[in-house]
User: Fold this.
Amino acid sequence: MAQKNIYEYDAKKLLATELPKYYPEFNYHNKLVVIDCDTDIEKAVSENSWIQTEKVVVKPDQLFGKRGKANLILLDASCDEMKDFCYSNLDRVCEIGNVRGELKRLLVEPFVPHEKEYYVSITSDRENDIIHFSFEGGIFIEENWNKVSHIPVPLGTDINSFDLKNKLPDLGDLEEILIPFIKGLFQVYINQDFAFLEINPFAITKDKKIVPLDVKARLDDTATFLHLDTWGNPDNPIEFPAGFGQVLSEEEELIRELDEKTGASLKLKILNRDARIWTMVAGGGASVIYTDTVVDLGLGNELGNYGEYSGNPSREHTEIYAQTIIDLITENPDPKGRTKYLIIGGGIANFTDVKATFAGIVSAIRKSVDKLKKANVKILVRRGGPNEKQGLELMKQVGEETGVPIEVYDRYTHMTRIVSLIE
Amino acid sequence: MEEYELFDRNTQAIIYGFQANAIQRMLDFDFLCKRETPSVAAVIRPTQGAAVNYHKVFWGNKEIVIPVYKTLGLAVKKNPKADVLINFSSFRSAYPTSKEALESDTIRTIVIIAEGVPERESRHLIKIADEKNKIIIGPATVGGIKAGAFKIANTAGTVENIILSKLFRPGSVGFVSKSGGLSNEMNFMISQTTDGIYEGIAIGGDRYAGSVLIDHIMRYEANPNIKMIVALGEIGGKDEYAIVDALKSRKITKPIVIWVAGTAARILPSDLQFGHAGAMAGSAMETAEAKNKALKEAGAIVPDSYEDLDKKIKEEFEKLKSKGKIEEVKEFEPPKIPLDFNDATRLGVVRRPSDVVVTISDDRGDVPTFATVGLDKIIRENKSIGYVIGLLWFKRELPDFAQQFIEMVIKLTADHGPAVSGAHNAIITARAGKDLMSALASGILTIGPRFGGAISDAAKYIREALQKDMNPSKFVKYMKDIAQINIPGIGHRIKSIQNPDVRVQLLKEFVFKNFKKHPHLDFALEVEKLTTAKRNNLILNVDGCIGITFLDLLENLDFTEEEIEDVIFSEALNGLFVLGRSIGMMGHVFDQKRQRAGLYRQPWDEILFSSD
Assistant:
């Protein structure tokens, strides 16, 4: 639950339906086609006849920027050129800012001839929503950042009675277009619970129409319930894709689905499947500190995952979570035959029942005794909270009964000290 | 109360949402602290029907009640001294409910527990709070605690933990963190390294927390009872720089030990979202390293890692102590809180006799059982109503002929026209506009010695005759001379030996065909021969026949003499008649209601008015 990136395609579609409500002059072409690995390109072309009659732009739509600089934008292209570009780029592995990933999704839209590129974005801080505007948009926006005007609009301001004109540089002839456009955009941003919206660049055509060329946006996904008629429509919710190159593994997907089903919180991010150290830590705050400690001790490159469980998850959900991590740690033994470590850590809980959650973990351990022994896993436990004595006793017992090496520590051992027991 | 204090030993809160556990935990804390009044003044439960209701809670080993209001407006009006709202409403309604509380005159501090409140809504709440000089703790938090004075909701968990972390009396350390989970860890760590917590607040992990670290740190700075400050920050956001600024401008003069978690982020994928919504670095400034470095440079005590946090806190506290800045804490033994009965039961340390023994059914498992037979089996195997009656009335799986006999009796007794007392009463009551249950009950209430009662009476006397080994003529004489009543079950208004009752014939046929033995029926038929010789309508009637053949049924089952006695004593025979006749009486009630039949009034010409 936080700010989430959305596809450029979705951002533009959202602008296409929402912006005219506040800025009726916005006459967007709304010609957008996504081509992914499963798209029948011929069919897509025949269903969108404009691709054959107009010049088009093709570019990746996978949440990364600087596509122009990386030579990944095809401009002013014919239908055949577009097809060639799609065929030769889809599934291609490339490296964007140190992240390797496959190009899996291209956006096709009409090419809009233009001379000048403008920049507008909206961000928020605690007291304001901030409009950023520049005449010098496009790929060199960062180099030209000093030319960007920043206009904080205090929270709760009616933008229609806000004197935007005075705060912007001399807009000249464009004032009549730009002021209502930016005010309209601002209202879409507010009313649709955007957390970030950037149009870089947008063009103004000869007939004075504004056309967004590249759009980046984040929505506040906690506001989904407020937008059931637009992007939060439960029948057709907007997608919050993972970043470029970040494909959710089966296990991550399982935990994500579980997390969505419960009032509790269950998170899992796999960092390195072959790693020697895995964590199963209770609490959003404690999980960060355990991760810090692993890294501080120089074991960062041996860390298998980041994750946490909190908010008093049920015994059953905890068991599934534990089983998932046990399956991962036991997938392959350490190639050098060293001991693997599962850190079952946590602070002293306020109200999460240690006995109930540990009962779930113990049950997963019992079902995995052979695997754990085969992969040479040692389990280190530290925890406190309601029913801590009984919970820790369960852990001790399962170790004694099954022969899986388990060391159990209570509140009197510093929370992260078990990490330093890793050899 | 000073401006820098949010709570004292008299602070009272209103709880939004019916959180029985959290409320009890707050009161247990109060009791441990020897507070004079409970810290919960009222509860708001918007789904409740009544404007005010009462919730029972324990105060030590006594029970007290706390009012439960339907609306915030009423709760606030009735409890003007309560200046804290602990808001348990969901992320959907946290905004409107918190806003209403912010706009009230008396609520000063609002704690928002829900996780997932939209950022824009949080920001609007913050704006209102700023304008009204009020404080929000949360969203997405467990709350906080002021040792020995006031505990927010589930903070610091159980009584045991409160005692171990010495939270029932104040120490000298002011603590604030983002994480609610870690705040309790820190409560304990601080109790082990210093004289304990004075106050500890968890501001919550959201990007836009209602109050931020610096807000509480400045309160602690102003509070002379607090000698040192401990804080836990987190990657993401720039809140910690406000502490840096305050240190640089000497607004913070007390020692502050602080650690910003999330240093591992540098080796993790850049888009990794940690457990808290705000925990993601948007720029180099927002990284944990940058913040720790800036804090250290500004004069905060920053350990090299979380591992050393406890040592730094201890070191700093010892320094203050050696300077004579720490006053001795007034220790006391907190009163014992009795164990909750449910907890004690779970732990196996108490036992209690039960009040009721039930031997016929059990609904505790996955499938309800009737006399140990699962309802699933009864349905899947398409068992009869007679079978179910066997289980629930006699705790037996009855053989087929017995099931059929019982169903036959139910059918035979189901109705006997509208004129008999039961149906008549049911009809009159239904027509008086009463509900089904009342109409049925008024019909059933007529069943007794004169209506339907012949069944059990017939059984009673014939059984007695057989037990005493009377012959039929002696029995007839006995009834006339000693019992001095007409033989129950003998005689009919219209039917006679020449015009037999078909219902009796059917019963007899069934019994002769299916029962191996039928001594009671045989005896009754001998008696009938004697009585019909006197008058041709003194025949065995249907009520008598049911009662008597039921005795024969019991003879044919594996009941012992004592069990048969129990069946008769328990009025199972009346039960058969009530069960059967209820079908007909309900039919009459439905019939009248369908017709919307009006009130029945007995015509005057059916009544003789006499002045005698």
